[in-house]
Amino acid sequence: MSTENNLLRVRIVFSFLIVLSSLTLLPAQNNRDKVSKKQKEWFYGKSWMEGVNAICDPGIDINTFAKHYRKHPQRWQKVFKFIHDNDLSSLPLGQQTLGDDVKINVQEYTTRVPGKEQLEGHKKYIDLQYVVSGRELHGYAKLQDATETVNPYSEEKDIALFKVPFITYHVVGANHFTIFFPDDIHLTNIQYGEKEPVRKVVFKIQVE
After folding, report:
1. 104 pairs with which residues across the strands?
2. Distance CA 130, CA 133 (A)
C-alpha cells in the first residue's frame, strides 16, 4: 500500500453514531461554541428530518444549517419529505427538479482510489448527499483553509476547485447523508478499503 494511502487511512474520521461523542474534534464544527443550546436541541431532536430514519453526518455545520432552515424551511421540508416518501433505490438515474429551489441528481458509480485531491465548493447551491447503498469517503475542509484555487469559480456550473493542506475524511455508508454549505469545500466518491458500487442521491438546495 502506498504511503499516500496509509496517510489517508490515518486521517479518516469515522462518522457513524459510535463517534458522536467525539464531535468536538471535527474541523467542520470549529464554530461549535457559537451553536446555541436551542439550536443543538432542535438539531438533535431531528424533527426537521420529517420522519426520515437516517444518519446525519456529525460534520454538518449546525449553526449554518439552523440559520438557513429558519430562513427557508420549505426547501428543507421538501427534501426530507421526498426522501421519506420515495424509494430512493428505484429512482431513475439522472437529474430532476422539485421546484425552482431544489434539484436532484441520482447517481450510480464505482468509488475511486485517492489521488491528488481537489475539493469543490459552491456558491448558489447547498449539497445534501444521501448515500442509498454502498460506502465511500467524504473529504471535508473549510473554504478559509484553501491554499490554492485550482479552478476559479464558474458561475454557469456553480463550482470552484481548491487545494488544502489537510483534509478530514468521514466514512459515509447506506442511509447516511452529509450537508455541504458554501463554506464547506469537499470531495466524495473516494473508496474506503476496496472499490465498490455506490448509489447516491444529491439534492441541490438553493442558498438565496
Report:
1. 96, 203
2. 9
**Which cell numbers in the block locate residue 97?**
427538479
pTM for this entry: 0.84
Rounded CA-CA distance 43/178 in Å is: 14
Give 10-residue mean pLDDT values along the chain (208 residues): 43 38 36 78 96 95 97 98 98 95 98 90 98 97 95 96 95 98 96 96 98
Cell numbers linked to 14: 469515522
DSSP collapsed to 3 states, 45-98: HCHHHCCCCCEECCCCCHHHHHHHHHHCHHHHHHHHHHHHHCCCCCCCCEEEEC
Residues 154, 156, 159, CA angle at the centre, nearest 5°? 40
